[in-house]
User: What shape does this take?
Amino acid sequence: MTILARLKTETRAAHDRIEAAMDLDRRIASRDCYRDLLIRFYGFHKAWEEEAAGRVPDRDFFERRRKTQLLVQDLGALGLKSEDIIRLPQCRPLMSLSGPEAVLGSMYVVEGSTLGGAIIAREVENRLGFTAETGCAYFRSYGRDIAAMWKSFGTVLLEASSPEADDLIVESAQKTFDVMHDWLCETP
Assistant: This one.
């Protein structure tokens, strides 16, 4: 079983748990609810990117996948000022990202969420009228390149795979789902 297949199998319950708890209909029911959802995503990504940046196996690969700036753009489009965004709460404590394998396992969750983001983007556009330029850049993060970005991530993950690394990768993905669930689904 490849590491990608193993991750999909072993994190299925955590994936389903966060998807059920998100209550997306409520979270995109109004401009304010949507803004609050983006604030929670910002708090997660800001903290996660700062932690992961120092431990990534390939800096350029990681930099192209950062989402915080897209969230800043969206929050600005929704009326938050830069000084307000800087003061937003961040997700603490994070899961331990002790090395490249842990970062890759965690990235599996973060990168996987971009696939679901494309579906969410369509719902946000239909319900609220936001586009990538007017408040939905985060959910449209890779635009038409979403499949290529996922494929390139999978290639890097497969290259990093080994019997020793795989357990760490899966453990990190599971912990990331737990932290993301607790952060995104708690009432701020």
